[in-house]
């Protein structure tokens, strides 16, 4: 095989209480990429459609992660990368991670799968780091592993795959403003109170227990963020209105997707998700900001081959 076309999905990082460690993978939105083996050595980005992003491999997240794998594998061939972006950069649903993870996933397949998903996560983190100016894997891990993931540690890198209850659906609203992850990280405090730390780690523990036991009530009671949301929600016009509307219409919980401005809600059943989507759509219309809202099943597979 000399060429692979793939779907690289959007992801929701943090999942309220799990800043920098929890994430899940979406089905409804993602980029497409084509990775091609070439006789000439090196990595080239030959096409980018959708958004204006750098072709220079040292400045493009897909190029930086591709170079990390390429230098480790030192293959006899080179690679060309085509990126068809649907995920808007700065939207909070893992746009940079989709690119960073997609390039290494495709190259790995074309090289005969020498690397594990964990090793691919490490390569992709190099790309993600240039976008957000910090290394974290909470978007990359769900893109590569699918479902819900927990980044147990970065050094050494350890990812846990968490179970996903069957009837769980996400509703994501994307107000069309840009929040740069690096900026959204700068406004966070260096230290937090012990009281908030206790609340947060108890919620992370109970959310994971809820995922393991299909306990939707417990998942609902755990989707709370007392550490990051109070700061970042100020960057998202109408955040409280979205949250109130979603919860009133039956969402299990609502929080900022990654570093925002997208806001996710988790719902039990597609029917509830559709009801929440329509209520959010109605409520946000008065905000005078263009937006998109969609319902997505949790994507259990992560990145997948299209041809
Ligand atoms: N955990 C990251 C953050 C995800 O919230 O800053 C965004 O890349």
| CA-CA gap between termini | 11 Å
Q: How many strands appear in the DSSP assignment?
A: 11
CATH-derived architecture of the largest domain: 2-Layer Sandwich
- Report the top-level CATH class of the largest domain: Alpha Beta
CATH topology of the largest domain: Ribosomal Protein S5, domain 2
Question: How does this structure look, described?
Answer:
The protein has 307 residues and is an alpha+beta fold. It has two domains: 3-162 and 301-306, Ribosomal Protein S5, domain 2 (2-Layer Sandwich); 168-297, Alpha-Beta Plaits. Helix content is 37%, strand content 26%. The protein has helices at 61-73, 95-110, 117-132, 140-145, 181-186, 194-213, 216-222, 229-232, 239-248, 270-284, and strands spanning 3-13, 22-38, 42-49, 78-84, 148-153, 158-162, 168-175, 253-256, 263-268, 291-297, 304-305. The strands form two sheets. Strands 1, 2, 3, 4, 5, 6 and 11 form a seven-stranded mixed beta sheet that branches. It is globular, with a radius of gyration of 19 Å. The model has no long low-confidence stretch (mean pLDDT 96). The chain binds L-homoserine. The site of L-homoserine has 13 residues, from helix 5.
List keywords for this structure.
alpha+beta, Ribosomal Protein S5, domain 2, Alpha-Beta Plaits, 7-stranded mixed β-sheet, 10 helices, globular, binds L-homoserine
Brief overview:
With 307 residues, the protein is α+β, with helices and mostly antiparallel strands.
Show the helix and strand layout.
Layout lengths: L2 E11 L8 E17 L3 E8 L11 H13 L4 E7 L10 H16 L6 H16 L7 H6 L2 E6 L4 E5 L5 E8 L5 H6 L7 H20 L2 H7 L6 H4 L6 H10 L4 E4 L6 E6 L1 H15 L6 E7 L6 E2 L2
Parallel strand pairs: 3-4
Antiparallel strand pairs: 1-2, 1-11, 2-4, 2-5, 5-6, 7-9, 7-10, 8-9
Helix pairs in contact: 1-2, 1-3, 2-3, 6-7, 9-10
């Amino acid at each position: 095989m000399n060429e692979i076309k793939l779907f690289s999905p959007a992801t929701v990082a943090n999942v309220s209480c799990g800043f920098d460690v929890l994430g899940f993978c979406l089905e409804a939105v993602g980029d497409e990429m084509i990775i091609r083996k070439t006789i000439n050595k090196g990595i080239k980005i030959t096409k980018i459609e959708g958004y204006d992003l750098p072709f220079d491999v040292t400045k493009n997240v897909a190029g930086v992660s591709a170079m990390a794998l390429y230098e480790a594998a030192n293959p006899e061939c080179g690679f060309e990368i085509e990126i068809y972006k649907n995920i808007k950069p700065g939207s909070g649903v893992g746009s940079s991670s989709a690119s960073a993870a997609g390039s290494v996933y495709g190259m790995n397949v074309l090289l005969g799968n020498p690397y594990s998903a964990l090793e691919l996560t490490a390569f992709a983190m190099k790309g993600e780091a240039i976008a957000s100016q910090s290394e974290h894997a909470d978007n990359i891990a769900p893109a590569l592993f699918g479902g819900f993931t927990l980044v147990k540690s970065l050094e050494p890198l350890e990812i846990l795959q968490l179970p996903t209850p069957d009837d769980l659906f996400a509703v994501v609203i994307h107000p069309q403003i840009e929040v740069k992850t690096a900026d959204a990280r700068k406004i966070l405090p260096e230290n937090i109170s012990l009281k908030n730390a206790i609340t947060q780690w108890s919620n992370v523990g109970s959310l994971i227990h809820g995922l393991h036991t299909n306990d939707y009530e417990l998942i609902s009671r755990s989707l709370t963020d007392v550490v990051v949301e109070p700061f970042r929600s100020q960057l998202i016009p109408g955040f409280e209105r979205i949250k109130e509307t979603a919860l009133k219409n039956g969402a299990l919980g609502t929080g900022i997707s990654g570093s925002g401005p997208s806001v996710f809600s988790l719902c039990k059943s597609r029917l509830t998700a559709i009801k929440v989507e329509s209520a959010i759509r109605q409520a946000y219309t008065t905000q005078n900001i263009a937006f998109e809202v969609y319902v997505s099943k949790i994507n259990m597979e992560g990145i997948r081959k299209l041809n």
